[in-house]
Amino acid sequence: MTDTRRRVKVYTLNEERQWDDRGTGHVSSGYVERLKGMSLLVRAESDGSLLLESKINPNTAYQKQQDTLIVWSEAENYDLALSFQEKAGCDEIWEKICQVQGKDPSVDITQELVDESEEERFDDMSSPGLELPPCELSRLEEVAELVASSLPSPLRREKLALAVENEGYIKKLLELFHVCEDLENHEGLHHLYEIIKGIFLLNRTALFEVMFSEECIMDVIGCLEFDPSLPQPRRHREFLTKTAKFKEVIPISDPELKQKIHQTYRVQYIQDMVLPTPSVFEENMLSTLHSFIFFNKVEIVGMLQDDEKFLTDLFAQLTDEATDDDKRHELVNFLKEFCAFSQTLQPQNRDAFFKTLSNMGILPALEVILGMDDPQVRSAATDIFSYLVEYNPSMVREFVMQESQQNDDDILLINLIIEHMICDTDPELGGAVQLMGLLRTLVDPENMLATANKTEKSEFLSFFYKHCMHVLSAPLLANTTDEKPSKATLNATFYDFQTSQLLALILELLTFCVEHHTYHIKNYIINKDILRRVLVLMASRHAFLALCALRFMRKIIGLKDEFYNRYIMRNFLFEPVVKAFLNNGSRYNLMNSAIIEMFEYIRVEDMKSLTAHVVENYWKALEDVDYVQTFKGLKLRYEQQRERQDHPKLDSMRSILRNHRYRRDARTLEDEEEMWFNTDEDDLEDGEAIVPPSDKMKSDEDLMDPISKFMERRKLKDAEEKEVLGKSSLSGRQSPSFKLSFSSTTKASLTSPSSASHLPGSPGSPGSTGSPGSPGSGAKSSPPAPAITTKGGLVGLVDYPDDDDDEEDDDEDDSENRDESPPLSKKSKLSS
Questions:
Q1: Name one GO cellular component term (predicted).
Q2: What is the pLDDT of residue 75?
Q3: Does the N terminus or the C terminus of the chain have fewer Cβ atoms within 10 A?
Q4: Is the model more confident about 433 or about 491?
C-alpha cells in the first residue's frame, strides 16, 4: 500500500502571484552529494521522475502553514510550497528541516527566531536604538548588510525604521545616489538598490511620506533602476518624464490636488512596475504601500467631488455638441477613471459621490454619449453606466421612467442600451454580455422598492413592456418570421454564429422574465405568439441556441399555469420539440436528455391537460422510444385519466371511502386509519373496483342506487335514531364500528362487533335486512352480506338494492331476536 503520509503536491509561485501545480509525488529527505547537504526530494508517483531536489539551507526561512503546508523561497522571485496529504507527513519533514537548521520544531517560521540569548534580547529592547553607519560611499556595503540582517526580526526592523527616520538617512542616501550615478559606480548603485528596497519592506508610513515627496520620488525610482540581477539598468524615469503625459481634460486649479494625482500615479507605477514581485514572506511587508495608494485615491475623489466648478465644466463639455471627438473621448475616460476610484470609498462616502454625480446630470450625459458613433467612447460610457446600475438600479429606473414622458421610445436610455447589445460588433459579443447583465439587473424585481405611495415593480415593468420589450425581441421576431426559416433567415440565424449568440442572449433574458415577471410577460408571450417563434429555433444547427429555446419552453411549463398550457395546446407547440427529438435520433446528448426531462416533468407533476395533448397528438411518433419509460408512463397516465372520466360514479364511491363518511367507534378508528395510510395512494387513485359476478349485469344506475338510497335513509332515520337511543333496552349499546381488513388474497372483509349497530341502513343495523332485530330474521342465518373487494389495492363498496325496506324498531322484537339469534364471531369474513 502506498504511504500516504509522504504524499505531496509541489507548487511554484508564478509572476502573477498564482500557485502553479508542478505535480504529485512522495517526499523524502537525505544527503545529496551533488548539493553537499541534506535535501528535500520529491519523486512523481506516476513515473518516479524527480519533481523537486532542494537543499535545506541553514539560512533559508521555511514556514509551516495550516498543518499541511511548507513554504519557502529558493531564490529571489522563486517560491516553493509542499502541500501534504496528511499532517503526520508534514510534521516529519518539518522536523528534518528544523534539525538541519538547529531550530525547535514547535516554531512555524524557522528564521523568525534571532540567534541571540534572552539576556541579549533584553539588552536590545532596553537600548536607545540601532546605530547606523555614517552615510558614506565606502560604507554602503555595510549599510546594505545591516538592512538585510534587520528585516527578518520585527524588533530590529522597528529599530532600523526609527533610526532611518530620525537621522534623515533617506535624503543622505539619495545624495550618494547622484554621486554614484555621476561616477558610474555600479557597485555602489547596486548597494543602493538593496538598501532602498529594504526600506520599502520596513513598511512604515513616515518613511513613505519622505520617499514619495515631490523632491525625492524620482531619485527613489532611479535607485530602483539598478537591479543587480539585471544586465542593464531599467529606464523608469525616462518613461515617467517623457512617455507618460499628464492630461488635464478640465484644468485643475488646486495645486495640492494636482500634486496628489502626480504622486499617486508614480507610487502606483512603483508598486506595479518598479518593485520586484514580492516573495510570499515580503507580501505582507508592503501592506502600508497598498494603504498609501488607497487613501490617496480617497483624497483625490473627495477633493474633486467638492470642486463644483470642475464637475459642472466636465458635464457641460460632455454634453456640448461643439466638443470635438478627441476631447470628448478624454472626458469620458476621465469620468470612467473617476468612477473607478470611487470604488475605494466607504459605503456612506460612495453614496454621497453617486448622489453628486446624479445631481450633476450624469445619466442625461451618458444618454448623449451612448448615441455617438465612436465605439471606444461608447465602451467607456457602458463601463460608467455599469457602475451606476450596480450601485443604485432604482436611480436609473426612476430616470428612464421620467424621460419616457418627454422623449420617443427610440432615444430612451434603456433602448439605447438594448440597441448597443444587439449591434455589438465583437465576434465574441463581450460588450453584449455585459449589457445583458445590466438589463437583467434593471428588470430584476428582487432589487425593486415598494413603498406606501408607489410600487416600483408594477410601474417599471409596465413601462418596460410598453416601451422597451419590442426593441429587445425585435431580432428574435425578425429571424423567426415563418414556421420554417426563409433562405435569408436560414443564412442569418442557422449558420451565423454571432447572430445565434445574440439570440441566445435575448432568450436568456426572456427566460429570466418568465421566471420573475408574472402577468406582464404572460400577456406579451401569448399576444405576440412568442413561444411559437422561439421554437422555430429548435431547428438551428447551433445546439446551444436550440437548447436556449427548449429552456425557455421548459421554464413556461414549469410554472404549471393553465393559461400557458392552453396556449401551447391550441397552437400545437410540442410539434417542433418532438421533431427535434426525432431528428436527434438515438444520440445520447444534452438535447436528448433535456427533451426527455421536460416530458418526464409533465408525467411526474401529472399535468393532465398536457399529458392528454401529447398522447393524443404525438403518441405514434413516440411509442417506439423504449430506452426510457417516460413516454409509456405518459400513456399510462392518459389511460388512467380517461378511465376516471368514463367511470365518474366509481370515483364518487372511492370518494365516500376517502372522506370517511361512516361514523366510527373510537376503538376501531386507529386500526382503520393505519390500514388507510398503509394502502398505496396510487392504487386508490388509479386502480379498478371489482364488482361481484352477481352484479356484473347491472347497469351503472342500478349500481349507484343503493348509495343514493343509503343517503336518503340516513336523513330519514336521524329522528328515529334519537328515540332508539333513548330506550333503556338500547342503553348498553355502543357506537357502530366497521373494520376493513385484507386477507392474504387481497380480498377485503367486513367485520362488526357483536353488539348491534346504531347506523340506519347499514349491514347489521336494526333497519337492514338480515340483521338481528329485523322482522323475519329469527334464528335464521344471515343472507350474503355486502362485499368489499380489491384489485391492485383499490377498495370498492358494493351494496344490494333491496336494503331499503322500512322496518320498525320494536324493543320486544329486538330483545327476542337477540336471544334467538346465534352470536356473531368477532371477525366474520364475508365473501361474494
A1: nucleoplasm
A2: 65
A3: N
A4: 433
